[in-house]
Amino acid sequence: MVKTTPLMDIQGLSLQRSGSPVLTELNLCIQRGEFVGLIGPNGAGKTSLLRCISTHLQADSGRCLVDGLDASAALAYRRSFGSAMAPEDLPADLSPRQLLSIVAAARELEQIPEQTLALAESFGLSRWLDRSIGNCSLGARQKTGLLTGMLGQPPLLIFDEPFNGLDPLAAFEFKRTLGEWTASGSCGVLLATHGIEVAERLLDKAVLLLNGRIEAQWTRAQLTELRAEGMDLESAMVQRLRDHAAPA
Fold first, then answer.
1. Mean pLDDT over all residues of the chain?
2. Rounded Cα distance, 125 and 104, in Å
3. Which of 3, 66, 98, 187 is surrounded by the most beta carbons within 10 Å?
């Protein structure tokens, strides 16, 4: 039997901040074509994990491989994933089009891909493309940030609460696009969200993070079984949290 090499392979990842553990001995794999939801309460470590993957934080131990590369490969590693820029981090003096052109150049593309411009149209962003980002609405800035991560369709896409500020049409198009990309096997997705219900039916796997550790994982088959039993992922997560909080 041929063993498939994971698209993303996290091995023993640990992180401390001010002497307190944030992530502890995490192991997590994502395959190409897999849509993974990262769930858990505030302070569970979801954002810290994504920031370690994207090299905005440096883990104290362990490693993360994406498409066979680790952070020591520097530029090649950064091109192996796409991570949305937060609205507050976008350069206010540039237009969305100018920012996307810079991201395209960083990904060694001669221009903004037509695919990205088509996504901008489907997101309802086209009328904002040539305004300064500082004069864009929050929704337009959120859409711009998402497009910076999706541009060029990198092998791994990582998103932290991507639905904040999105109108229903943009949220629908965003989910539809990620669903199509993963179904085609062209990339993998790791998406951290509190709004479990907005992405649950797209998920191939759900990972519950609690106190910096993986408390539970559900495969697509297990998620399907939950629904057949009249439950949903949110209910299963809440039950796990209650079990964990219950006195021994």
1. 91
2. 18
3. 66
Phi, psi of 9 (to 5 degrees): -135, 105
Q: What is the model's pTM?
A: 0.91
Tell me the pLDDT tens digit for each residue of 70-118.
888 778 898 899 999 999 999 999 999 999 999 999 999 999 999 999 9
